[in-house]
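Hi C.,

You asked whether I'd gotten around to modeling the 161-residue construct. I have! Everything is below, sequence then structure, no commentary in between.
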Amino acid sequence: MSDSEEHHFESKADAGASKTYPQQAGTIRKNGYIVIKNRPCKVVEVSTSKTGKHGHAKCHFVGIDIFNGKKLEDIVPSSHNCDVPHVERTEYQLIDVSEDGFVSLLTESGNTKDDLRLPTDDALQAQIKNGYEEGKDLILSVMSAMGEEQICAVKEIMGKN
């Protein structure tokens, strides 16, 4: 049992380490990205306090988790480094929506990607399902960061008859 626990720990550490890069806290701005409590967040508010009698200026970050929408906060000395997630957006064409809530997507290389669930956002989920049922050609934007992926937007391909 202890072997599997050690293996699990190592894979977790490895995955998180390569998915971020360090950036000085004082240079991170609003609408940028930051890791707060091991979650990739979009910065919605930054305030900097003045240096105290014995210390550093501190940056107060308020971020929204890019995958679950939760609000997170962190206070970091402005001269220290913070982890910043590598956030990528990729567009895929929708091929299929399965009964169990997974989507089948076409990659640029012509392969299929079948490991993504429909988004938890009800409006976005309805837009994808309805568009698919009506036979529309849909392009889904997938945001990925720190080993997680989620569908974040949908658009229809116009002009095909």
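If it helps when you're writing up: Residues 7 and 13 are 10 Å apart (CA to CA).

Thanks,
B.
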